[in-house]
Amino acid sequence: MCQEETVGQLDQAVGYVLKRAGVALRAAMDVALRPLELTVPQYACLELLGQRPGQSNAELARGTFVTRQSMNQVLRGLQERGLVSRPATTAHGRALPTQLTPHGQRVLRTASTAVGRVQRRMLAPLTFDEQQRLLHDLATCADALTDTTPHLACAWPSPPPSW
Amino acid sequence: MCQEETVGQLDQAVGYVLKRAGVALRAAMDVALRPLELTVPQYACLELLGQRPGQSNAELARGTFVTRQSMNQVLRGLQERGLVSRPATTAHGRALPTQLTPHGQRVLRTASTAVGRVQRRMLAPLTFDEQQRLLHDLATCADALTDTTPHLACAWPSPPPSW
DNA sequence: CGAATGTCAGATAAACTGATATGT
DNA sequence: CACATATCAGTTTATCTGACATTC
Hints:
mainly alpha, homodimer, 163 residues, two-stranded antiparallel sheet
């Protein structure tokens, strides 16, 4: 009723439900990735590289909604473990294109399977159509907020092309 | 096709979309709450207390999906600023029922309005029915994961009664 | 120059685990 | 005793901001 004034009942609040779902997914992913000694941000980076090889640190940062500095740390960790490689220098520009190493590709495949299981478990109660609708509507909401929050609108200048 | 093996395209991954929506909402809430000098966890605690006054630290922790220790810090901050109050002792048991102070109630009203604006902005592209469906399906997914992740199933023994 | 990038350094926020004490 | 609670202390993780050099 007085939706104009407050957020209403908690279980009707987007924030509450989003937080709940996020925490549950994050925890389940932690469990699934622990055997591989991968953190969720590390996995996200590998996944991104698997789908779009050769991305620079800055591009990866935008793709996972964190700062360059944060992604830099993630990359350093992955590089030390030999999961990704980057040229020390480049002929043109400053961007250093990152690649999965063969070992990185193997780890990614395992991780991706494990995470896939988690995601399917999460979506299991919904029909395929309901799943599609959920993902679509969620993306729409994210867009709506991003477009109407000034400081966010310019935070990710060029949203990753094909997404 | 090989959905049995990987998570598929990123923009079709629950995790990706959830992260994206979560980051966008969190950032927008930060902006909305900054004038009130409230963090998101602090706001969440106030909101919970507004709807279910007298909850103990442990209950609030369960209600916001964090540990007692984390909630304890939040409560200490809110208490120092005079937004909530708790008896120093109790006649029976250890649980200290927390209450919003009059000032806390005023701050919560303002915060709730600001956050409500953010949430409505986020949901604006969807019809009312679509919003309801989104919230419902999201909750269903969270339940599915929580039920099937052993360590999570027991993390929140008694899910907050009415939710 | 301005803009994007990479990276170093330090700071912070928000969560965690572990341990201890109290109360039923 | 088992169990839930409160709370102290230390730690970790994932962020962030600031600064500076490099390259177009």
